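Hi R.,

Here's the chain you asked about this morning:
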Amino acid sequence: MAIVLAPMEGLLDFVLRDILTRVGGIDRCVSEFIRVTNTLLPERAFVRVVPELLTGGCTLTGVPVRPQLLGSDPECLADNAARVAGLGADGVDLNFGCPAKVVNRHGGGAALLQDPELLYKIVSAVRRAVPAHQVVSAKMRLGFHDDRQAEECALALEAGGAGQIVVHARTRADAYRPPAYWGRIADIAAVVRTPLVANGEIWNVQDALACRAESGCQNLMLGRGIVSFPGLAHAIAHAGGAPAQSVQWHSLHPHIAAFWQLVRATLERRQQAGRLKQWLNFLRRHYPQAQVAYDALKAINDVAVIDAWVAGLDGGLA
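And here is the predicted structure, written out as tokens:
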């Protein structure tokens, strides 16, 4: 029953991966997508998005991070997959789910779900290029305009050699609007043998249990839910058994401080305040104290002021 941290462009980067895997309960991460067009990217392009490649392909707590590639040219994707696989990751993930218009306009992400034959060509080319001991996985949605080809797309990924398929249980047209159609994952599971991971609209333990029941899929991918409640993976893992160690607001203080230190050390100054406020904006869904913190900082862009706020976390400032 694996719990996987989702790839989310502009949110779940190496900084937040580091922090959330410190909180624990996550078995594997998938990176934000690395766009592949018509060239073989230099190694530094992969390391920029997945700096964990410099530490054995894992976060500092030892959780594997699988780089995700986005593109539509089978041979170009294969060449880049071979290069990133050579940097030591446990495998390569392929993006067939991004709903962004700028990506779809260029034939990438969820747009590829309109062409199952091309899905097959991409996965098979990448599978041939990546050493056999490394996994080639894929993330798909239920479809582009509708979900009528969901099973056909999953079968194409399986035929191409995908060793694992994450299914985000919405179409591109659904975007991120609830609900997620977890029952359609069960329909896909009925026609493929490849292990599936269920994704979409899992905000709490009750959602996780409902998703598992409706999809028949025990493996889950968490995105916005675990950003909002960093203890979610632990809570799901202990559901129905021994109580999980609760991740209270005060126990998040050192993680927020570590997050801010990483942001200050690795991101451009103009991005720093926004990144902390972005996470607080998610955290306030679960923690009333995060609402107070967000209200206090939402108009603040002076990093020195935020430095002082973070330094005072355990002194009652939040």
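One quick note: The mean pLDDT is 95.

Cheers,
M.
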